[in-house]
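Protocol step 4 of 6: record predicted structures for both targets in the notebook before any analysis. Target 1:
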Amino acid sequence: MGDEREGVMATDFFWSYTDEPHASRRRQILSQYPQIKELFGPDPLAFFKITAVVLLQLCTATLLHNAGWLKILAISYFFGSFLNHNLFLAIHELSHNLAFSTPVYNRWLGIFANLPIGVPMSVTFQKYHLEHHRFQGVDGIDMDIPTYTEAHLVSNVVTKSVWVVFQLFFYALRPLFLKPKPPGFWEFTNFAIQIALDAAMVYFWGWKSFAYLILSTFVGGGMHPMAGHFISEHYVFQPEQETYSYYGPLNLLTWHVGYHNEHHDFPRIPGSKLHKVKEIAPEYYEALDSYKSWSQVIYMYIMDRTVGPFSRMKRKVSNTKKSE
């Protein structure tokens, strides 16, 4: 990794000259435990879970139309943020077609799950996220990795704290600036439906209801326990490992995205069943470093002087092959 020394932040990424680890581990596990294939397929409860959260969040927004701003901010952070981040990870689940066997149904459900988030993103997210799986860490393709500009600017406790607060903006805007994809029918559909919901919220209930939704998205993606997964998943705290799992209670609210090694190994298994992968093949995961607290991960990221945006594994496209 660059020129990292004890107590000094690196000035370049970790560079790997091997393929990403998940495709080969998937083959090894399936050859030894073929019954894992029985876990593949949609989560039959996904539609109902998403619908419940969407309706709860929209109803909460309408109830706050006359609330004071301090109350709106407090409820956004301590309640709405959990719901909107849950929906963001529901969209992640749907990007892998894990609610229905028919892909287009997942896309429509993703647009529906997007509604309380306030900003159209479900269709675009799927395109970039699937590239993150197929080309994990590949320079110029995997938009999950910070830019050199981010990495050079975010170099101390203060700038790392600011970066964490606004990390959702970096996460969302980075691919649009670095690798824009031409919008198509589904992007326009996502945009039109989302703007119609936003306009209806403002027209019938006022700006405070709409602001509650936006605040729930913003604070839930920043200095927030659930947002710790953005850092915990692939930020390298141990040079020999590039993906990390989290085995804590917030998995219950986040579609079990904490089982991230398991997810990258088997992206066709819904989050609700990922724990079974670890139970069936424990020897492949118990030796890997993992976390039990996302809040602790955020604290470690900010306070550790050797860790920052450069703490990611990268590889050249010529040195890798597509994963699933």
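Target 2:
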Amino acid sequence: MQNSAEVSVIIINYGTADLTIKAVNSVLERDHGGRHVDVHLVDNASPGDDAHQLAEAAKSPLWTKHVTTYLETTNHGFGRGNNLVIERLAAQTAPPQKIMLLNPDATLDNDAIDVLAKAMDENPQIGFAGAAIAKPDTGPVTAAFRFPSITSELIRTLGLNVIAKQFEHTAVALPPNLGTQQVDWVSGAAVMMRMEAIQSVGFFDPAYFLYYEEVDLMRRAGQNGWQSWHIAEAKVLHAEGAATGVGQSERKRRPDYWYQSWAHYFFKSYGPARAALLSVSMLGAAGLQSLKSILSGRPSKLPKSFGSDFTRTAVRPLLTGRSPLS
């Protein structure tokens, strides 16, 4: 099969068919500066009638012409779900030059695809170009980041503002109103990726189910000389957390796969010994934050059940010298 699209947009759905349809339509209703853009929609074995809703939407003329739907019987997660499409596209005789990942709970707010593609055309070193992201009700949110580090993780877990201010230069999240510039990595909710850059590192690490997979991908690509840029002129609206159930609330209990992905990332990035030492140190930092919370009468900033969940899913595997995803 030959693909003549310059940009292929991939959207991974799980349980948000109504939002996903809006996301697809936000792509189809724009002309993208005359670029040929197609959409690849993966339903990750959603519960309920998502597959039926998407199949019905796919009967419309625009969808029939521009959208390829993959109704999966297994929930592959984010990275593997994208790999499913990217690997097929890469194997075509005329694969797309660029891949655009768009969350199912996100919509284009301007001609973001054209803006991102132009930035990549003008700078052949850009492997990943991320859009500026805003929540519909509250405005801009962070869409560009520094790589997580041992320092950033300990400070975040300790939760002391006076210390965090002294180490602002290590904070993972960059300001929401950041201008166009090179960064360590950008949000996977709205990012354009050069096919050549993705192929150079062997696509997403399939060990991840959800979270940290795009951080890992851009870290590996960066080691190969590819740059990641935040392009402020590209605008996307994102109802954060609607698709995953995990937003920015610190107190909400995190799923096991969040901690497992965290541990896998640090295991790969820093090695078994330092990842294990970091995980134990974070338990100590979490204990100090909990003690401070008790003494001050203020609620902890840690996710609910952090100590037990983190110990079970991350610390114990790392202390045995392995990643929980290996």
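Step 5 preliminary note on target 2. Residues 140 and 211 are 21 Å apart (CA to CA). The first strand starts at residue 7 and ends at 13.
Proceed to step 6 after PI sign-off.
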